[in-house]
Amino acid sequence: MFTAKGCTKFHEFFKVAYDGGTSEPFATRFKESSANGDREGMIKVLMDVPCIKHTKVAESYRGKDDVKAAEVYSKTRRSPAAANGEQGNRASDFAETLFTASTTSRLFLEVLHDCARSCYDSGAFASCLRYCECMLALPASFYDRTVESMTDFTERREACMYLESECSKMLKRSSSASTRKKRVPDKSVLPSEEERVPTISVVDGKRNAVLQNCSDAVALGFDEKKGRRLVATRNIKAGSILIVEPPFASATNKHAFYTNCLHCHVSLKPAGSVKIPCRSCRAVSFCSETCRSKAWQTYHRYECLLLDAFYENRSGDMQQQQQQQVSHLLLAYRMAIAGSLSSKGTGNDDDDARDDEIPFLNDDSIRRHAAGENEERDRLGISEIYRSQDYRTVLALETHCATMEPGVNLVRAIEAIFLTKCFAFVLSKMDVVCLEEALLWLAVGMLHHLQAINCNAYEIVENVYDKETHIWEPREIGGAIYPSVSLVNHSCYPNVVRHSYPAGTIVVRTLRFIGKGSEILDCYGPHFLSESRLQRREQLSKKYRFLCECEACAGNWQFPLPDTIAYKCGTCSAAIGIISLSSNERNGKDGEGSRNASSSGQRCKCKEKPDRKKLHAQLRKSVGKRLNAISSMYEGHYAQALAQLFEHIHFIEKFFVAPNIETIKTQQCIIQCYNRFGCTSQ
To answer: Which terminus, N or C, of the chain has the lesser number of Cβ atoms within 10 Å?
Structure first.
């Protein structure tokens, strides 16, 4: 049993709650509610368990420590580099002190100024501006306790105002000089930062009038077996952007707290990057004062005191299943914040003015959704605009609540109640009292979020370049909920691909031609290139509750694919003969294999006979475009490579039957180009 101080460890809460939930009469009642998909009933059962009902949570985070900060700073100042008078950019040397010192201390002001000054002295003017921005955003009320403290604050502020002015002049001068000389500006200043931050594109064509984050090239449809789905309203060529969507909510993996900005997820590893600390905890990093302020206003102020609790290792019978990179607990928590909290203010004030503002808790949307779930889903995207930031679109996501095993629902329900207790604890610190009924509906909403995350969350990735293989490898740094992207169904041979951009925005592009009326299809994980049909179907059935019948599964496509390619009938698209591919990558020379390839040719029922000699010559020429594109990619010319790859894949799709190894190779190259255009890291 827990003491009056409350618990700070999720695994401690889970153990006691799981034991209570699996004892009678609670276990039988819970199974009944689970079988009926009754989230409200499941939560009520567990809230009646005494050990759950009377347990409270307590703070669980790494706060500031001025004593330790002073020790670290003193050690840094005595380092050999400092003793020898070496300047350079020493901001990274002061990082630990900056993150450990309390924001209201004189030491914080001193170190923040040191960071700005060292960046200026080393010519990293853009970085210096970021530190100055952080200093100038500090409110005077933090330092008005003593005359000495206020004097320090005023002096440091004036010093940073001077540095800000000088940096702006230097950057403007550098930009003007580079324009006159028509050369790339010095990579030690601002342009290097601009290179690292990718530009987010817009959807091709017009924006969909109903599906707000989609192109008008797609529309929402319904299938008796698949449910909601996106279909093409016209022919769509390869490389088209169909969806550009910011997340409804996102969460960062624990390992990325110090390497990526908590808010926009941009990498903090490249030289010249700036790390701005949270003003309350020392666990997370931001790339700028702007990101820190936005994060605090929208979600971090509600999680800061409990951040460590969301990343506790899971325990119990579900331990192995629960160990996942993405913090599902934090993601579900942030979904509740985004959906059920609103401010009484206009939202235009800075975060300091909002710190004492009492948030407004609105649980009506969850209650209304529980009463008319199906009706809500039928209207959104059809007769009502489907917005990614509309909480109703999140509550309309599939959860498979009634078909999940009772044990899985029990784990999710325990997590939901723990998150609700965390939420109530934080709100109590803000003078918001949660009544029992409000706690019930918050827990019901949390349970819905956790179930929806299991089958609707997408990873946030950054791509890391391998100099030896010349490949951009995706690395997962977090997870997010995208209501529009969740409308896209699965295929083991997808026709679209997703990529992460700053602030968690996701961009969905086509990998190949999609005909009018065809379905837009993503891959939920298992691909026919890497796993057998049996393995894929088992994974998809267990997690998403459906038997995959995509073209790869229906045709039982096997990998590796043969080194041949089949002609396509222009009328019925049937295979009418094969050709060897092995000779086409040998400097474009026709080999013996290709001369013999036409011997297996045949006519389809349409009696169409292709000009094999002509097609073979065209194929060799087109394969050459892919090889040239690969050379361009090695040299860093990805936009140029994409143009050649699209030409090649258009030719292959028009004249040859899928699946074939040439299409797969080309698609992988296209994905590599998109990896480069998305979020990247060193």
So the answer is: N
Give the largest CA-CA distance in the chain.
Answer: 95
Q: How confident is the model at residue 488 (pLDDT cuts 50, 70, 90)?
A: very high
Q: How far apart are CA 478 and CA 461, in angstroms?
A: 7
Residue 507 pLDDT > 60, yes or no? yes
Q: How far apart are CA 445 and CA 332, in angstroms?
A: 9
Q: What is the pLDDT of residues 82-99, one digit of tens each?
A: 544 444 456 677 889 999
Give Cα 190 distance to the centre of its chain.
26
pTM of the model: 0.89
Residue 432 in tokens: 């918001």
Mean pLDDT of 287-309: 94
- Three-class secondary structure of residue 449 per DSSP: helix
Structure tokens at 138: 């500090």
Fill in the DSSP letter of residue 600. Answer: G
Q: Which two tokens stand for residue 659?
A: 């699946």
Contacts of 247 (CB under 8 A, 6+ apart): 388, 480, 481, 482, 504, 505, 506
**Peptide bond between residue 560 and the one before it cis (omega within 30 degrees of 0):** yes
Question: Rounded to an integer, what distance in angstroms lies between the CA atom of residue 50 and that of residue 21?
Answer: 10
Pinpoint the alpha helices (H) of 122-189. Answer: 125-136, 147-181
Q: Answer for the pair 660, 565: CB distance below 8 angstroms, yes or no.
A: yes
pLDDT given for residue 177 in this prediction: 66
Separation CA 183–CA 72 (nearest Å)? 43
Cα distances from 32 to residues 50, 51, 452, in angstroms, run: 20, 21, 21
Single-letter code of the amino acid located at 41: G
| pLDDT above 70 for 533 | yes
CB distance 580 to 564 below 8 Å: yes
Give pLDDT, residue 193.
40
Compute the distance between CA of residue 379 and CA of residue 391 in angstroms, rounded to an integer: 14
Burial of 41 by CB count in 10 Å (0-12 exposed, 13-18 middle, 19+ buried)?
A: middle
Q: Name the residue with tokens 């088992």.
A: 538
**Tally of residues, the chain:** 682
Angle, in degrees to the nearest 10, between helices 364-371 and 436-456: 70
Residue 567 banded pLDDT, cuts 50, 70, 90: confident
Sign of CA dihedral 36, 41, 47, 51: negative
List, for residues 21-76, the tens digit of each pLDDT value: 999 999 999 999 999 999 999 999 999 999 898 888 888 888 999 999 999 998 88
**Helical segments of 494-637, H only:** 533-544, 551-554, 592-597, 612-634
Q: Give the pair of three-digit tokens for residue 596.
A: 């013999």
